[in-house]
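Example 367, ligand adenosine-5'-triphosphate.
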Amino acid sequence: MAELSFSDVGKSFGSATVLRDIDATVAEGEFVALLGPSGCGKTTLLRLIAGFETPDRGEIRLGGQTVASAVSGRFVPPENRNVGIVFQSYALWPHMDVARNVAYPLEVRGVPRRERAQRVEEALALTGLSDFAGRAPAALSGGQRQRVALARCLVAEPRAVLLDEPLANLDLALRASMQDAFAAFHRRTGATMVYVTHDQTEALALADRVAVMEAGRIRQFAAPETLYDEPASAFVAGFVGDGAVLTCRPTGPLRADGVPIEVLGQQIVARGRDPHPTHVCLRPDDLRLTDGGAIRARVRACTYVGGRFRLTLDTGEADVVAFSRARARIGDTTGVALKRPWCFRDPNAGAVSPAMEALTQGALTHA
Ligand SMILES: Nc1ncnc2c1ncn2[C@@H]1O[C@H](COP(=O)(O)OP(=O)(O)OP(=O)(O)O)[C@@H](O)[C@H]1O
């Protein structure tokens, strides 16, 4: 397995730039998800790694070797990259049984029969398919077919495994059990994996780190808990996790315990590192429903989410989301208090005004 890195990679189709400024490194053995809305460039990035597309800018390296470079013009074709790919469509041979499907990449390479049999057996065991070796793909469930595709990819001992929405065709229950299967597969093989999805639950559940993409750019590349607790932009805050993203304004210098801000008419000390935050991310857990809460909000929606209720609350200024143990009636009014939400400066916010600079000067000296 191998490290994968991108430096300043860009890609256009005609006049449309679909990837820009891609600078990232996937460590050897790391499980990374590419997450973003439809059309943000996830599949194109995957195709660049596989060698189905060439970059217009920058360089891609795999295991210390440059596999594509717009600078030197070097390009290693897909068949020489030793990268495994699992598509959502499985792409199995219908006339071959499971074992033969898995053996196929080794047959093509001329691997001797005995070694082939042993490697196929191992791959089937790793994916929990040992009992299905003699079955035809048509006699398998969607999840089992996907595992055959995974075994076939694994048997070739690729330097990296690329997965393009591999669970998109499966029903919800199967998706959950396949997520467990992918996680187990990753633990046992230590494979470097890049997993494309537009399903944030899947990305956050599976990946060591998630690259959140928007309009051809990686907006934040971090561990799931960092994306959730400390989003770097309004886009990431809104795209990952539940809750609301509101504008805020700093009310004083950065302190050791956080940033004084005003949001929803309240002065609070939020979590944060930027002295000039523009936005605050209110996760449901950042809100406390209490009669004494200074913010008055009207219940707009109440849905049961297993063990508790998810409330959408209209504060008059913006809608926020909170959890409640008790069911609430639509139209009821409740008090809301803010805990310590995360605040940040959105990269699109532009320069800090001199007035704002003056207000927030003296960072830490007043802490
Ligand atoms: N071969 C191509 N020629 C022209 N445009 C393309 C080509 N391939 C992709 N695009 C465009 O590039 C953009 C990114 O596409 P891509 O498939 O990478 O997005 P995605 O994030 O994987 O989307 P989805 O989640 O819908 O699969 C889209 O606007 C798409 O229309």
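Summary: The pocket of adenosine-5'-triphosphate is lined by residues 13, 18, 36, 38-44, 198 (CB under 6 Å).
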